[in-house]
Amino acid sequence: MADVALDPQNSNSKELFGQGVRAYVLQDYDTAVRAFSKVSELLSAEHGNDMHDSLGDVYLYYGKSLLELSRKESGPLGEGVLKNVDEGSESEEIQESDDDEDKTETTNKLEEVKANEDNNQETEKTEEAKSAEDAAKTDDKPAEEASKEDISPKKEGEESEEELTDLQVAWEVLELAKRIFINRGADGKKNLAETLIVLGEISLESGNFSSAIEDMTEGLEIQKTLFGNDSRTIAETYYKLGGALSTNGQIDEAIENFYASYEYLSNKVTSLKKDEEHKEANAEEIEELNNLIPEVQEKIADMKNLKMEVAKKVTAPVAEAAPSTNGTPEASSSSKQANDISHLVKRKRKDDDDVKDENPAKKPSP
Q1: CATH number of residue 295's parent domain
Q2: Which residue range(s) make up the domain with 168?
Q3: pTM higher than 0.70, yes or no?
Q4: Which of 28, 57, 256, 293 would staple 3 via disulfide (CB 3.0–4.6 Å)?
Q5: φ, ψ (nearest 5 deg) of residue 8
Q6: Is 5 among the domain residues?
Q7: Which UniProt keywords apply (predicted)?
Q8: pLDDT (mean) for 221-236
């Protein structure tokens, strides 16, 4: 299908939101981002409140679009996303959005990050006017003083010379969405869970593995209170969490989550086959699931093989270092050589503090 065309003069937030959703489904993420950015501008002016409840869904889609745009431009970090698992549910969600297009709840949403962009534009001229003076001041400062200033934390309200990346904007947008969905209470749980999982994906892309695992796990626990044991949504989340765990070196936990994903997909196939009333309609989804399940099984096998390889690398140096019992000169020489195994042992992995950010640093780095 063709890309979605946006009318720059369109000021109808409902229409723009619908176009943004369609662009997202068509993987035209640049158009989706522009659409949601415009919607945010319109709705912020309409409600005068960046945290208005109607902005929640728009923030969520805006953040998801920014994440996918970033992936499209730079490529994802790993193989943690079983995208096909979500295609059916995503399509259903968009269809429901189209059917309810006249409903305010479906169409009203989004804004905060756009406000940040507007602030950047307003201060751009001031920054340019200051740039020459700032550069001169920096040149006059001792190297040590300038270095300290560069690494010092920015004060609240202080202008940043660097433009935010797509991932950083996505993070800020989704944090706003999370707060809105929390304020909704029980009605916001479904979207809150999805928001947490997308935040986890952003952390994964940024290399903050512990934060990714924490957010995805929290989102998964919420989903398990909302959906049954044949939910494709939960199957996808288990798969994503398995990818995050494997990237973090937690192979056993990754295997458990991949296997849980497999079980949920298998349960879904069983449920669809039992539904005789919609047998023809379910046939296509059953075929799709039967194509996905082997991929998950292959991932489980890969993780088990990786676990075995790691075990071999750990035990091999120990076996080579074991002293010989035959007492021959050759054995003595061999034993002496085996004792020197420094070249065989992999360097110890960096401490978690070196590779994982603490909670204050969960936000993606520039």
Answers
A1: 1.25.40.10
A2: 13-122+160-321+349-361
A3: no
A4: 28
A5: -60, -20
A6: no
A7: Coiled coil, Nucleus, Repeat, TPR repeat
A8: 98
Burial of 132 (0-12, 13-18, 19+ CB in 10 A): exposed
Determine the Cα–Cα distance for residues 36 and 28; give it in Å rounded to an integer: 13
Asked whether residue 331 is assigned to any structural domain, the reply reads no
| Amino acid identity, position 77 | L
Q: In the chain, how many domains are there?
A: 1
3-state class of 328 per DSSP?
coil
How many residues are there in the chain?
366
The single residue listed with the structure tokens 């006017």 is 129
What is the radius of gyration, based on Cα positions, of the chain?
Answer: 26
Residue 256 within a domain: yes
Alpha helices in the chain (DSSP H): 13-25, 29-47, 56-74, 83-99, 104-107, 112-140, 143-151, 166-184, 189-205, 209-226, 232-247, 251-274, 279-321, 329-339, 352-355
CA distances from 65 to 140, 169, 198, 293 (A): 44, 11, 11, 27
Rounded Cα–Cα distance for residues 347 and 219 (Å)? 35
CA distance 88 to 232: 9
The pLDDT, as a whole number, for residue 8 is: 82
User: d(Cα 128, Cα 121) in Å, to the nearest integer?
Assistant: 11
Say how far apart CA 101 and CA 344 lie, in whole Å: 63
CA dist 318 → 241, 306, 332, 357 (Å): 33, 19, 17, 34
Tokens 């989102």 correspond to what residue? 219
Of these ranges, 46-50, 70-74, 88-92, 228-232, the one predicted with the greatest mean pLDDT is 228-232
CA distances from residue 297 to 56, 187, 216, 260 in whole angstroms, order as listed: 36, 35, 21, 11
pLDDT digits (tens, 9 = 90+) for 229-263: 999 999 999 999 999 999 999 999 999 999 999 99
